[in-house]
């Protein structure tokens, strides 16, 4: 194998091997852009080193070969006393990990060559400044010396000289500083700063390899879900200097605005400086546009290069450049990060420019970005004080009174207050408080911390790891930078999309994208903003491309109408249990408590017209589109009062000698219905089989509602769905009864009804015997929530809050299987059941209605295994449409 590539040998598609930076340096070199010559050590070399603790044997020789070639090309030798070649050694992994790993500049300087550099550049100050930077960076990153010691020494030197900026230090001052820095290295690292340039280089390369496993880097990778085994490449690049005087400088630039997507001149420039000065904010940068008046020639060339890069990459690029005495050099480029809104705008702009086509435009955006754009957001105009920033863990904009424990969160929210739960970090005990709160703010922990995982699961706004905030749960307060104290009850606002934390109430405005989907803002209208135009066009691209249909999970007319506005092509899951709550609970209680057949029939009779009316409204809202109605699914005790509460009521009544016959009967029923594992108990199709008349009442309501809609010239398209079927016999029995009821209704109303009957596939046995079940089912809808629960043996109601954080941290899975379909396990059952079902009944309709129906990655999977539709909650419909379109490209 080859461990070292010259910049002329690579290209942008070799990111796995050369890292992002190395691959793009090679690409720019081959485009003929001014890149300082250099070479890249591959990630393979890094992997060998990380696995074995030793650099690959061949590496030293290969580096020597490339170094010699570089020296010949540049006409000078690394660290040569009279005319030194200097190089930078930079990390560069496949995925950008900003600031996470090491870089050392000015390698090759020593007590001797610093003189040579001074002569060569004709600038003594510059040479000593470069040398002190080398010792500082090398000391810190390679030798592990505390960086503050160097910073302090630099501060002292400035104070002694009574100056405020480093450029005011003269050669003599810097010489002294070098001596001081070398002493710091000697005492702290226990060795001299190495004078041999090749030793400097070898140590720096090793340090970059090692930095892959630094704590910061590891944490970042966990948060960003970057695999730990990729390793980093190392770029050795001949130095160019931005600190050679006022005709030199360094800057960063974007080929278009990463926030708005607009084309223009975006970036910052810093005269007479090296790259790290920009990041460190030592001096103030000027807007890139100012470069035009500072150095017109370089500016024009830069604009030209930016255009070349955009046309070549066909995307927004960000770049780092340096100007050395009027000569422009490109030090880095990559396809730049952007906000969700900019992603949509840029994609359509590039289509308009003819750089990409619709299919490619769909690849430039994703459902997660669209979801982000659909959250209400804080009004950007509002002037509110930002006091901290953490990790944007779960999007949304939340305002409320700060509370510091779950008990208070629950108590206050019960009395109608909006609260933000503030903790150092959360644990499963905080669950009640998290549910009660508008949002969650923690000062510790990353994107996979308990708070983040649970909040995302609940769809609740969360900012975590806001480390500048000092949370004191004992004293019920937090201290913000600058010393202000936020007490319990003070109002704060948190933005889960940016991670920002504000004091006071920030006004919230609805998302323009939701306004658009709701039909309150129109693309093409004068006041429609550019984002809405872009989203409108991208959605049209997606709808044209996709094969999967998208339906909604909705159980009332209001949700159904919204779903329709959002583009739903039907209802994939109407959960009828929601129709048994509220003021109907009493009737359901009576049904459960019925001692005699007459009692039971009476309560069912009363429920029938109510149910029927529900369906009439639903069919009207979804006129002409399929509506899948699932018969009652949850265990009956869910409709009865809580056992503890009821026991207390009975005991109280007893002690007061008040009548409590009804409570007592209820309590007995609760005890009778109690199950250790209700999720595996009397629910779903089992209810239909053991409670006479329940399912048939529902089927009758559906059939009568359909007949009524038909009489009203509507177009009802009802589908009846039986939940939790494990064997075809269950389905056959229920089906026979249903068919009979439907026949009765047809007869009585004189209406011909076409009601499809199908089943959910949400138990492993159902999936495994799908071929048999399809004999009795006209459609399957995969209930991937229960299927995940039963395939993994994970309680869907408990695990996310209990041990999933540990599982995520240990890397057992990267994301909860309740969020993204577990392809290997649950997914493969879906695939084989779909196949078996279609083998029995080629026109079997296949859908999915678990939460996964609105999850981007899962949508791609369902497309691949050939389902007909996904069904998800109304707000996820645009996301599912977009991802279905992306999956089909
Ligand atoms: C499922 O199990 O995936 C499903 C959609 O049904 P529910 O979530 O109501 O159990
Ligand atoms: Mg289910």
From TrEMBL:
Residues 533-885 form the PEP-utilising enzyme C-terminal domain. Coiled coil: none annotated. The keyword Kinase applies. Transmembrane segments: none annotated. The active site is at residues 450, 849. Mg(2+) binds at residues 762, 786. Its cofactor is Mg(2+). Its EC number is 2.7.9.1. Residues 59-284, 291-341 form the Pyruvate phosphate dikinase AMP/ATP-binding domain. It catalyses: pyruvate + phosphate + ATP = phosphoenolpyruvate + AMP + diphosphate + H(+). The lineage of its organism: Bacteria, Bacillati, Actinomycetota, Actinomycetes, Kitasatosporales. This is Pyruvate, phosphate dikinase. Substrate binds at residues 575, 630, 762, 783-786. Residues 417-499 form the PEP-utilising enzyme mobile domain. Keywords: ATP-binding, Kinase, Magnesium, Metal-binding, Nucleotide-binding, Pyruvate, Transferase. GO terms for molecular function: ATP binding; kinase activity; metal ion binding; pyruvate, phosphate dikinase activity. Belongs to the PEP-utilizing enzyme family.
